[in-house]
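pipeline/complex-builder :: batch 7 item 3
reading input block
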Amino acid sequence: MDDPRLTDDEVVTSVLGGRRQDFEVLVRRYSSRIVHFVARMTGDNDEARSIAQDVFLKIFVNLPYYRRENNFSAFIFRIARNMTLNWLKRRKRTVFFSRLLGHELDRLPPSQDPPSLSPMEQGEREQALTRQLRRLPVEQRLALVLKVYLEFSYKQIADVTGWSVPKIETLISRAKARLKKGIRLQESGNEPVVEAREK
Amino acid sequence: MNCRKIVRRLSAFQDGELASSLERQIEMHLRECAACSRELAEMNRLRERLLRLPPPAADPYFPGRVMALLPGRPAAAQRLLRAAAWAALFIAVFLGGFLLKTSAGATDADGRHPAATFSSVLLEPQAFGLLAVHDDSLDLFNGGGHEQE
């Protein structure tokens, strides 16, 4: 079904030409990366799938506005970034109001796929690291996730975010330093509890 | 380069984002500096731990679900259709208004008021001036005429 010889732009042309079923080729090419990206940003795999689904619907609707310059990846990750950041803002508001009402929604552990095969300790360490990632300021997390998990170059991250390359270098460097510090604290049993500001 | 400057660029060095000349300088420094080497080793351990986090499990039904939820057509086509619908509505209202205005003040040859509403115009075409002209021209076309004969 997915002919690897076809470039993304050729598939887009085909979809816009009326073969909407070809959109599935793009979904299959990018879905795991988009879900992975959103999951690392939100720390919630179930939400990530739901957001990723909306991302693809938005991509389809906005397909006519894509300028075919063989940079489809930047186009869809821009949409994924915007929708994820909107979700994070909404969640922040929800957490704020839930705190006002005396609930603690943000303290609930993020829903994860069951780590059935990994030993308990390994699972705990993974969860702790996921928490550390979630505590990073949003801009640092975004840059780091795109670099580490999507293997984007700084230039590609700049295409997605609109930031300058020096800014991206600084954000990633700070994210790494912050994570190292968090891990050190966690291993010494002094893991910080408060979430970082979402900026 | 001193350690402070090196440490500041170490993350970009790890990511392979530096120019080759700067990369060589840092490599040379790392060979001699234990503290900076430890910093880089710690950064490498962090990256390994991050990469060990399992990705979300693949969902084989995901593409099918997305395809089932797709709207009819991409936005440009939807917009075009919406614009065409508005244009059609505008033309209909304009024509309706024009026909009403034309028929409201006019009287036919017998001094009767022609139809006052758009629907009655359609029902009584003989009372409508434009159609009457059309009938005359048809007569002329068919060889008939008023005064020529």
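note: The helical segments of chain A are 8-16, 23-42, 45-62, 72-100, 120-135, 138-148, 154-161, 165-187.
queue -> next item
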